[in-house]
Amino acid sequence: MTTADSGSTHDDGGKKRRKRKGPFCGGKLHGRDGTCEQAAGWGTPHPGHGRCKLHGGCAPSGRAAGAESQARAELARLGVPPVENALTALAAIAGEVVAWKDMLAAKVNELSSLRYKTEGGEQLRAEVALWERALDRCGKFLVDMAKLDIDERLARVTEQQAEQISAALTAVLAEMGLSQDQQRAARAGVARHLRAV
Predict the structure, then answer these.
(1) Pairing state of beta strands 15-18 and 115-118?
(2) How many helices (H) and strands (E) does the chain have?
(3) Residue 8 pLDDT greater than 50, yes or no
(4) Of 85, 78, 83, 41, nearest to 63 (Cα)?
(5) Residue 19: pLDDT band with limits 50, 70, 90
(6) Are the C-beta atoms of residues 114 and 124 closer than 8 Å to each other?
(7) Is the pLDDT of residue 123 over 80?
């Protein structure tokens, strides 16, 4: 995808036409030099982003690239930083889902009745409906997390980080010329301080 810098006119074989303002598709033109100046995403589900329909914008990979470009542009517009660790972010969301369910359960427990009467008949309180929906979502979310084995993956990541720190510490202690006893004492001190954190 390319972007034009002006909306000036130019001569095209004796005809004057207004130069389009980009972003452009930027796909290679077939049988001649240059790139496509059709609007980015023209004729695709991702208008304004990626290739046009004539240059692969409707192909699965073109759709994926266009959707990714749209998502990145929207996140940049909102000022949202990218997720660095998806597993940790997913575990945090699970915590929020459970907390929301628990908060709604407390609200339902405070109710004197689960229904109320109106001219149209008996109605279920909104708090109860929200709590039921939260239960369903919480259950689905936790089942999905269990299928992904998030806890085990996070534990493996933590173990790998610990092994890397241990290897780096061993290398630094060896470079410092410390004896084996001094290195063992330093490792024990580091372990003690890490447990305190």
Answers:
(1) unpaired
(2) 5, 4
(3) no
(4) 41
(5) low
(6) yes
(7) yes
Domain ranges of the chain: 9-78, 86-148, 152-196
Cβ atoms of residues 66 and 43 within 8 Å = no
Q: Residues 146, 150, 153, 154: what is their CA dihedral angle, to the nearest 10 degrees?
A: -140
Identity of the highest mean pLDDT range in 56-65, 67-76, 145-154? 56-65
Alpha carbons 15 and 68: distance in angstroms, whole number: 38
CA dihedral 19, 22, 28, 33 (to 10 degrees): 30
The secondary structure of 110-173 as a DSSP string is H-S-SEEEETTEEEE-HHHHHHHHHHHHHHHHHHHHHHHTHHHHHHHHHHHHHHHHHHHHHHHH
Residue 170 is encoded by which pair of tokens?
């061993």
pTM of the model: 0.40
| Closest C-alpha among 133, 142, 123 to residue 101 | 133
Instruction: Estimate the crossing angle of helix 86-110 against helix 150-175, to 10 degrees.
Output: 130
With a CB cutoff of 8 Å and minimum separation 6, the contacts of 190 are 169
124 DSSP β-pair partners: 115
CB 97 within 8 A of CB 105: no
